[in-house]
TrEMBL record:
Stretches assigned to the Peptidase M24 domain: 157-354
Binding site residues for a divalent metal cation 1: D240, D251, E448
Protein name: Methionine aminopeptidase 2
Cofactor(s), names only, from the UniProt record: Co(2+); Zn(2+); Mn(2+); Fe(2+)
Name of the gene: LOC114253498
Catalytic activity field: Release of N-terminal amino acids, preferentially methionine, from peptides and arylamides
Family the entry assigns: Belongs to the peptidase M24A family. Methionine aminopeptidase eukaryotic type 2 subfamily.
Enzyme class of the recorded protein, top EC level: hydrolase
Residue spans of biased composition, Basic residues class: 35-46, 82-91
Organism, as annotated: Bombyx mandarina
Single Gene Ontology MF annotation: metal ion binding
CDD domains for the chain: MetAP2
Residues that span the membrane, as ranges: none
């Protein structure tokens, strides 16, 4: 809190100008002598000059005291300026605190005014049959800007979740090393994200289990309790996790690798994701986004063990729209040409994600299932087993319609739940999402960002310094 200076604090007198000590005093009688009269004028001029050339210290002190005297009428204005300056430092990317290393301070405490950093701002992509000028005019349209302001609270919730995601992945990208177990990696990531998002039941927390799919496994793998899988130097691992505030989900993923021979694969998929983001926008057809992704991805090749492989988009994996507490909201964003001609609309949120493979470019269910999610549209289903009713209560209380894994059920206190979980899946109350794999021996990569189609612009809310 800025200190306020009052008139009572001014206790010193203003410095008064006077003649120097070395000026000679001349008697009136001496002024009759022309030589002495000239000397008097010279000394007087010298005294005036010395007075004008006060030392810097005296000038500063004089200025400060004069300002202090006038503070009575200007104190309010000065204090207001100080407050504005202080508030400015807390808004935007500034904050009253600095994050620790490793991160431990909740993001909400770093931005106490509730103004979280914006993502990357872009024009809406060119839409089929839509004048390009129309998209650019959205920036300056007063009507569109008014619509932006109407949704400010929602945008801040999304940015809050995005900032927690950014800071979590920054830590994890520096922390992960070959030789770590996959379960240790997931638990460190989830512990950090929960702390930064300020976990609070269904109001704030993780949106779905941490995916850490390796090599030919493209998605939906997270270790179950007892899994001893270790991350190897030659692995290509996809880190896919989500955060949310009041159900506003950030779905964002990246690929980690340690052996530089996989650079072309990873680069090709990342560039394809950027092409998908650039092509997206209000009034854009979903099929046009897929065509842009495929064109860029298939232009890349990778050499492995002396053989060249074209980077293929995994055609049966795609991006998707997102709604509150609903990670897959109905619209799909393909990563190959063809598909839906449905158009994107204002204030929709999309996960633009692309998967590339050196294999067939198509995935199938494989391995032990770990991901589950309550069916969002399922109506009431009578349950006979008491254990099924108890497990459903645990799911409703802790996850609602957000995805979860077996480790999270155990964290929530569930035990001996295998039969009850199978019963819920058999009755369609809960859906299972097994790991999705291409052919063994191939390698897959993934990148993903969450974009917000604001009336004025396209905001890549999950964008960070890393990707």
């Amino acid at each position: 809190m800025a200190a306020v200076v009052t008139e009572n604090d001014v206790t010193e007198n203003v410095v008064e100008n006077g003649e120097d000590d070395d000026v000679e005093v001349i008697d009136e009688g001496d002024t009759k002598d022309p030589a002495k009269k000239k000397k008097k004028k010279k000394k007087k001029k010298k005294a005036e000059g010395e007075t004008a050339k006060e030392s810097p210290t005296e000038v500063t002190a004089t200025t400060e005291k004069l300002e202090a005297l006038s503070l009575g009428e200007n104190a309010g204005e000065g204090d207001e300026k100080k407050k504005k300056k202080k508030n400015k430092s807390k808004s935007g990317k500034g904050s009253s605190k600095e994050q620790t290393v490793p991160p431990t301070i909740p993001v909400a405490e770093l931005f106490p005014d509730g103004n979280f950093p914006e993502g990357q701002i872009m024009d809406h992509g060119p839409a089929e049959g839509i004048d390009e000028r129309t998209a650019k005019n959205r920036f300056t349209s007063e009507e569109k800007r008014a619509l932006d302001r109407l949704h400010k609270d929602i945008y801040q919730e999304i940015r809050h979740a995005a900032e927690a995601h950014r800071q979590t992945r920054k830590h994890i990208r520096n922390w992960i090393k070959p030789g770590m177990t996959m379960i240790d990696i997931c638990e460190e990531l989830e512990k950090t994200a929960r702390r930064l998002i300020g976990e609070d039941g269904l109001k704030a927390g993780l949106a779905f289990p941490t995916g850490c799919s390796r090599n030919h496994c493209a998605a939906h793998y997270t270790p179950n309790t007892g899994d001893t899988t270790v991350l190897e130097y030659d692995d290509v691992v996809k880190i896919d996790f989500g955060t949310h505030i009041n159900g506003r989900i950030i779905d964002c993923a990246f690929t980690l690798h340690f052996n530089p021979r996989y650079d072309p694969l990873v680069k090709g998929v990342q560039e394809a994701t950027e092409a998908g983001i650039k092509a997206s926008g209000v009034d854009v057809r979903l099929c046009d986004v897929g065509a842009a992704v495929q064109e860029v991805m298939e232009s890349h090749e990778v050499e492995l063990d002396g053989q060249m492989y074209q980077v293929k988009p995994i055609r049966n994996l795609n991006g998707h729209s997102i709604e509150p507490y609903k990670i897959h909201a109905g619209k799909t964003v393909p990563i190959v040409k063809g598909g839906e001609t449905t158009r994107m609309e204002e204030n929709e949120i999309y996960a633009i994600e692309t998967f590339g493979s050196t294999g067939r470019g198509q995935v199938h269910d494989d391995m032990d299932c770990s991901h589950y999610m309550k069916n969002f549209d399922q109506q009431f289903v009578p349950l006979r087993l008491q254990s099924s009713k108890q497990l459903l209560n645990v799911i409703n209380k802790n996850f609602g319609t957000l995805a979860f894994c077996k480790r999270w059920l155990e964290r929530a206190g569930a035990s001996r739940y295998a039969m009850a979980l199978k019963d819920l899946c058999d009755k369609g109350v809960v859906d299972a999402y097994p790991p999705l794999c291409d052919i063994k021996g191939c390698y897959t990569a993934q990148f993903e960002h969450t974009i917000l189609l604001r009336p004025t612009c396209k905001e890549v809310v999950s964008r960070g310094d890393d990707y």
